[in-house]
Amino acid sequence: MKIAIILALAGLCTVAAAQSGEDNSGTFNVVPFQFDPAGSQLVAAEWRSGTGCPTSAPIAVYPSTSPTITYQEPGCPTGDDRDKAVEGLLLAKTGPTANNASAGALITGVRGITLTELGYDIRKPDAFVDPRGSHCGAGAPRFNVVTEDNVTHFVGCASPPPLQTSTGFWIRLRWTAAQAFPPITSSVRSISIVFDEGQDTAPDNFGLAVLDNIDINEFSRTRSKRIRRQVTPRD
């Protein structure tokens, strides 16, 4: 059943990307969506202020009521200096995984690129296998990449194992195109992030993840929700 749900969602994201009116004007955007055909109201996806990874946040050390120091989260060594609201991409699925519903985000403006790297920062301490913090399962949050040869490729948070490049209360995870299942060898038609594992999925049984600094081809390192294009896409 899980495979059927994944394939159905992959098809949904492909159609949505085709209908999103991508203008391919030189930036990527990460646009949250909720897939909930039965109206369960058990999924949520949004950029939420105060949930992202702070890279230069002014904080007031108690008992001060005005900023005294700047806080830098070590798990996100780079970020978007323009993101003064410290927004994170909150993805949640309440209840069972079997519910045909998901939270996610479409990454617009990517059609025609040659994909070399995918990644994000996730609000999770120390390691991607740590049961604390955001859910990081084999199937969610995952990238669904549809290529121009009409093949859907999957990259889960814990499968394949990511390259973890930082440690803190957040961690930075990266994958290559060759790590996808199956490996990505054609140009991109669409990319989406899907979160469809609920609270019955171990080891955290949390059903929620917060992401930031979405990475496509190494161009997210200084952008949280918008990153520069690496190559000129095809029409």
Q: What is the structural class?
A: mainly beta
Determine the fraction of residues in helical runs and give it as a percent range.
under 10%
Number of strands: 14
- Examine the coordinates and then state which fold CATH places here, giving the name of the CATH topology: Jelly Rolls
Question: Strand percentage, roughly?
Answer: 25-35%
What do the pLDDT scores average to? 86
Q: Using the alpha-carbon principal axes, give the shape.
A: globular
Uncertain stretches: 1-8, 13-26, 221-235
Major sheet description: 6 strands, antiparallel
Spatial sequence of strands, sheet with the most strands: 9-8-12-6-1-14
List the helices and strands and how they pair.
Elements: H1 2-19, E1 27-35, E2 43-48, E3 57-59, E4 69-71, E5 88-93, E6 102-108, E7 117-122, E8 142-147, E9 152-156, E10 163-164, E11 171-176, E12 188-195, E13 208-216, E14 226-228
Antiparallel strand pairs: 1-6, 1-14, 2-5, 3-4, 5-13, 6-12, 7-11, 7-13, 8-9, 8-12, 10-11
